[in-house]
Write a structure and sequence with these properties.
The complex is a heterodimer of chains A (273) and B (263).
Chain A lengths: L6 E12 L2 E13 L4 E5 L6 H9 L6 E6 L2 E2 L7 E4 L11 H7 L8 H14 L15 H13 L5 E5 L7 H18 L2 E6 L2 H7 L2 E6 L4 E7 L11 H16 L23
Parallel strand pairs in A: 3-8, 3-9, 6-7, 7-8
Antiparallel strand pairs in A: 1-2, 1-4, 4-5, 9-10
Helix pairs in contact in A: 2-4, 3-4, 6-7
Chain B lengths: L1 H6 L1 H5 L7 H15 L11 H14 L1 H33 L1 H14 L8 H8 L3 H25 L3 H9 L4 H38 L6 H10 L3 H29 L8
The chains are: A alpha/beta (273), B mainly alpha (263).
Chain lengths: 273, 263
């Protein structure tokens, strides 16, 4: 039987230092996730849902509380925790194949086994004919498929998805949601999806964690009972979605400061003669 | 330009020839000016005289001897200055400490005009070949160091996070992320370095002691008042500069193929 406390968060707080004092982004987050479960975390801007995912992947450290994966505390990043970001974050100078291969840079597999693994995962996301293409040649949906393959190729214990379809058009998004459901069913990997799309959260999740902002807290956890594979037009899903949407109609979420990284453009230099 | 193209249909078929219209016109003007005695041919040699001087030098071998000497010191200076510049820029880009320690000095030193270094260089390296190579290397060093530094600093934080998530080591980050990401900027620096190296090569031949070199060909020509020799030297210097520039651009597009956006 799968473990009920495979991924555990206990009293997790996250505060960021700001100009005058501290900003509390997450407060007292406690959650138990079963092995193989699909958890959706939904909330408006500023509810700290992306920060929560950054804690899980190890890019940020909790200010208080514990995060345990399979009994081990989460410290720093580790290939046993894979992530897909909203922007695909592929390396533009590497081909599709090499981007996924990069995730296996320190794998114990032989070069031939690595390549084989990469090809299997590209096939899983339906891109086996695009191995030699560069990211600039791909559409947004295709890039995100590559990012999913890169997140999965290490066979991580958990897969973290940070609004992975947020930047895609509605049709591509719907298509990728269905593919994600198929991949998750086939691979049985524990998955945490962060999204602001309630439909998406309900369609994919075994449970939906509803968060509220300032500071980010868990408002409630909703069990999504229809069995997988699900149909988008399922009446019960619509009912659950309407129920969750009630939570958001009361308070209007407004954007909160979010670490934005500047991209500096190159300058070329003339010089004094 | 479109009017011109309409009037001369061959320019429409070969748009690359449009750029040759002005130089061809200038040569024609030059020819007319000398042929019709608008100018003194002692001061401005005629195109046939220049062509003849060029031909004599090419057949006699001194053109190749001089050009070879210039290209060799150009290349040596470029390699020395390029390697030091790349290493220096990379170090400054990777290490905050190095930037804090050496950065201000470097940024101040780059304001010094290159020619202002000549007295110091001649004191250190004399007036011979080492001084010339050092001068060229210095000209290459600045653009290469600056652009590598800026390119490395511009590595996107988002991509750096990916490297952390994938558990890449420091060496892997350098070769898989930082250097490829900085490659376009580094190429810009090397490209500029190549142009400056050639300018500095001719400059070095002027400022340091005489010896074989295409710049010296021109100096000799002036001293003996042989304007045909000065002018063919000028044309060769320009042509070599153009070729080096084309070569750099070609290598750049080949190496940075990932930047192409088809459709």
């Amino acid at each position: 039987m799968s473990k009920t406390d495979f991924l555990t968060l206990k009293g997790v707080d996250k505060r960021f230092a700001v100009k005058d004092g501290e900003l509390s982004v997450l407060e007292n987050i406690s959650l138990n996730i079963r092995q193989g479960e699909f958890i959706s975390i939904v909330g408006g801007s500023g509810c700290g849902k992306s920060t929560l995912l950054r804690l899980l992947v190890g890019l940020e450290e909790a200010s208080a509380g514990h995060l345990l994966l399979d009994g081990e505390p989460i410290r720093g990043t580790d290939p046993e925790r894979g992530i897909v970001f909203q922007d695909h974050r592929l390396y533009p100078w590497l081909s599709v194949e090499d981007n996924v291969l990069l995730a296996l840079a320190n794998s114990p597999l032989s070069p031939a086994e690595r390549l084989d693994t990469v090809h299997r995962h590209l096939e899983l996301v339906g891109l086996k004919n695009f191995t030699r293409a560069y990211p600039a040649q791909l559409s947004g949906g295709m890039s995100q498929r590559v990012a999913i393959a890169r997140g999965l190729v290490n066979r991580p214990k958990i897969l973290l998805l940070d609004e992975p379809f947020g930047a895609l058009d509605a049709l591509t998004r719907a298509q990728l949601q269905e593919e994600l459901a198929r991949i998750w069913l086939a691979e049985g990997i524990t998955t945490v999806l962060v999204t602001h799309d309630v439909d998406e959260a309900v369609l994919l999740g075994d449970r939906v964690v509803v968060m509220e902002p300032r500071p980010g807290r868990i408002k409630r956890i909703v069990e999504i009972d229809p069995p997988h594979p699900r149909r988008r037009e399922d009446y019960r899903l619509a009912e659950l979605r309407n129920d969750i949407l009630q939570d958001f109609s009361q308070h209007q979420a407004s954007p909160l400061l979010h670490p934005q990284h500047e991209q500096r453009a190159f300058r070329s230099y003339a010089m004094a003669w | 330009m479109t009017d011109l193209a309409k009037r001369f249909p061959f320019l429409q078929r070969r748009p690359d020839l449009r750029g040759a219209v002005v130089p061809a016109g200038l040569v024609l003007l030059w020819w007319l000016a000398t042929a019709l005695q608008w100018v003194d041919t002692k001061i401005v040699a005629s195109p046939p005289a220049v062509l003849d001087a060029f031909w004599q030098a090419a057949v006699g071998g001194e053109l190749w001897h001089n050009l070879g000497a210039s290209l060799q010191r150009n290349l040596t200076g470029f390699v020395v200055g390029g390697l030091i510049g790349l290493a220096f820029g990379t170090l400054l880009g990777l290490s905050r400490l190095a930037e804090r320690l050496v950065g201000p000095t470097f940024h101040a030193a780059k304001q010094i005009a290159l020619f202002a270094w000549i007295p110091l260089l001649s004191a250190w390296f004399g007036f011979g070949e080492p001084a010339k190579v050092a001068f060229i290397a210095l000209a290459v060093f600045y653009p290469v160091a600056l652009n590598s530094f800026e390119g490395i600093r511009a590595t996107r934080v988002e991509l750096y996070e990916v490297a952390r998530v994938l558990g890449l080591s420091r060496t892997q980050r350098l070769f898989k992320l930082v250097l490829p990401s900085a490659a376009p900027a580094i190429f810009t620096g090397l490209h500029l370095g190549l142009i400056y190296a050639w300018l500095a090569t001719i400059g070095a031949e002027y400022f340091f002691s005489a010896g074989p070199g295409i710049g010296n060909t021109m100096i000799d020509g002036r001293e003996h008042f042989e304007m045909d020799q000065v002018l063919y030297g000028l044309v060769v210097v320009g042509a070599v500069g153009l070729l080096l520039n084309r070569l750099a651009a070609w290598i750049e597009t080949r190496t940075l193929a990932w930047r192409v956006r088809p459709h």
